[in-house]
Amino acid sequence: MSSSLQEQQQQALAEFMKTREALMEARREIQSISVTARSRDGAVEVTVGSDGTPSGLRFPNNKFKEMTGQALAASVLEAMSASRAQVTSRAMALVQAAGAGAPTTLDGGVLDRVDLDKLLDGGSLEEVLAPRPAGGDKRG
User: Fold this and answer.
1) Is the dihedral of CA 129, 131, 133, 137 positive or negative?
2) Which pLDDT belongs to residue 77?
3) How many whole angstroms separate alpha carbon 98 and alpha carbon 81?
4) pTM metric for this prediction
5) CB-hemisphere CA count at 13 Å for 50?
6) Are 64 and 7 in contact (CB under 8 A)?
7) How far is CA 44 from CA 83, 118, 124, in A?
8) Under a CB-based contact definition with an 8 Å cutoff, are residues 77 and 64 in contact?
9) Which residues, other chains included, contact 64 with Cβ-Cβ below 8 Å and sequence gap of 6+?
10) In principle, which of 44, 45, 46, 128 could form an S-S bond with 75, CB 3.0–4.6 Å?
11) Residues 6+ apart with CB under 8 A from 63
């Protein structure tokens, strides 16, 4: 192999490792995200974690006592939806800041086959590119 090609390989590997480290840090930060949002009517606050699971529900005033069950349910769902949207936005910003913005289109190439969790957990190239089980991505 020529010296120039080896230098290019080394540079590409160094850039990959830097991006991998940034993605690992982004993943740690994403796992610690917690967002609280309030419904527009102010009756409900919902806190969700990085996986979108609610971890808190609060009624900051007594307005809920005057609401119908249907209106209260709508406020809970609205606050939950807003919290989840904010979690997603923050997570995407962290990934983009790590220098690894998600591809906008996948054409059946190698990106379709990459298992990001195995890549970040130090999996071998064979593990990272191994076919995924039928049924799609388990992370939903």
Assistant:
1) positive
2) 95
3) 26
4) 0.63
5) 13
6) no
7) 12, 39, 47
8) no
9) 43, 44, 72, 75
10) 44
11) 41, 42, 43
Longest dimension (CA), the chain: 77
Q: How confident is the model at residue 116 (pLDDT cuts 50, 70, 90)?
A: low
Report CA-CA distances (Å) from 59 to 17, 47, 66, 75.
46, 12, 12, 10
**Region at 136 (left for phi over 0; alpha for psi -120 to 50; beta for the rest):** left
| Angstrom distance (rounded) from CA 42 to CA 28 | 32
| Residue 73 structure tokens | 């349910």
In sequence order, the 6+-apart residues with CB closer than 8 A to the CB of 132 are 113, 115
pLDDT per residue as tens digits for the range 41-53: 999 999 999 888 9
Radius of gyration of the chain (CA): 21
52: left (phi > 0), else alpha (psi -120 to 50), else beta? left
**Residue type present at position 93:** A
Q: How many CB atoms lie within 10 A of CB 102?
A: 10
pLDDT tens, position by position, 16-73: 888 888 888 888 888 899 999 999 999 999 999 988 899 999 999 989 999 999 999 9
